[in-house]
Automatic annotation (TrEMBL):
Tree of life domain: Bacteria
Pfam family, one: DUF1489
Organism per entry: Croceibacterium soli
Taxon lineage: Bacteria, Pseudomonadati, Pseudomonadota, Alphaproteobacteria, Sphingomonadales
Protein name: DUF1489 family protein
Length: 130
């Protein structure tokens, strides 16, 4: 079972803007200072995007490459897959996410509004209902 990671989509503002960025080319690239220690387990896993304090989508991790400046590029498949929103506190950088804790993908034809809205998931989570 591959290992996943979470990351805030801080420049996106919306799922549609995130989709435009991820699906713009043959691959999406995200840069980080440090190579995750468990990077080999993450290839084939996903990067789960946090937007408005909830996991809302994921992108498959293709691999990792070191740049000439010493930083690392996380290579992502050019497809954004929507998931059932799951409350997640914001954090800096990235964090590991085990398979058992990852939210399921939305079914074909299902839209995020069919599941609970992101803000409602966050509020219900604070109250201990989700």
């Amino acid at each position: 079972m591959p290992l996943h990671m979470t990351k805030i989509a801080y420049r996106s503002g919306s799922v549609e803007n995130l989709r435009k960025w991820v699906e713009a080319g043959p691959e999406a690239h995200m840069t980080t200072r440090y190579l995750p220690k468990r990077h080999e387990e993450m290839i084939g896993g996903s990067l789960y995007w946090i937007l408005e304090h909830a996991l809302v989508a994921r992108s498959e991790i293709i691999g990792f490459e070191q740049n000439s400046d010493g930083r690392w590029t996380i290579r992502l498949a050019p497809k954004l897959i929507l998931v059932h929103p799951k409350a997640k506190r914001a954090h800096q950088g990235w964090r590991y996410l085990a398979e058992k804790d990852a939210p399921p993908d939305l079914a074909e034809g299902e839209v995020a509004g069919d599941a609970l809205p992101v803000r409602m998931v966050r509020d219900l989570s604070k109250l201990g209902f989700v």
